[in-house]
Amino acid sequence: xxxxxxxxxxxxxxxxxxxxxxxxxxxxxxxxxxxxxxxxxxxxxxxxxxxxxxxxxxxxxxxxxxxxxxxxxxxxxxxxxxxxxxxxxxxxxxxxxxxxxxxxxxxxxxxxxxxxxxxxxxxxxxxxxxxxxxxxxxxxxxxxxxxxxxxxxxxxxxxxxxxxxxxxxxxxxxxxxxxxxxxxxxxxxxxxxxxxxxxxxxxxxxxxxxxxxxxxxxxxxxxxxxxxxxxxxxxxxxxxxxxxxxxxxxxxxxxxxxxxxxxxxxxxxxxxxxxxxxxxxxxxxxxxxxxxxxxxxxxxxxxxxxxxxxxxxxxxxxxxxxxxxxxxxxxxxxxxxxxxxxxxx
Length: 345
What we know:
This protein is α+β, with helices and mostly antiparallel strands and 345 residues long.
């Protein structure tokens, strides 16, 4: 449906380099990366805001590289929504329908359907300056989709919302995509958001795409140290791998699924896959170690427990686990890790 081939674009001292990927019709495709990685520039090149230095953009096999933005049939919602302050909500939403020269009756019919879907009928005659952040967001969405775009581009659209509003918005966004089935490209630095919404994810850093895959592939099998760190792998250790054993620099060994010989690698383990227990006979793991708790760090509903087993491991557990096992600094515990939960990078 959408294809980017070897896209290059230099803006000041920053360049997006050799960006190539395809997005299927109806797919929810997320570009995930830290702030300043070039995610928004990719959206703006797709929308036609920038001319490409090199490369091509295709939609349904038609090369749109030199087609003006107004003729690409693409909807765009920016992080700060960019509503027109001198226009009412109704006028804001209908603005793009006038640009696309929809008939008045078609535009009004689409307006009513979209406003009902987004539950903003009661806002139509209001000035945008009196809207809440969530209301502004829904109006911006309505304006972007009223012309039934082939592709919807979303630029960090939930970053300004409080946690409660953000969660509701993500649920609504998933429902909206299911109902409209519009091909969507969403950029974010929030990996939890990407995990919840995406059919596939492209991880980006410093103007380059580092890995593309399903959420499970990205979050369970990162292709690099950068991706592992960015997606929440809190345990990373230099190692050598031989005959299903990852040998750390201090001589400690992990049993791993990887049977390849690796002279210089990293053993990566997510904190939530480091299991704590008190009786060594109650759990069966390929990797089991005795250790002592160094520190328990409050991170809200989830606690980070640091355990010394000869190396320091991070484990993420619930408040109930802390209470049930009476976990406190200095307490001896056992640590279990499945061999399949240790990734070799």
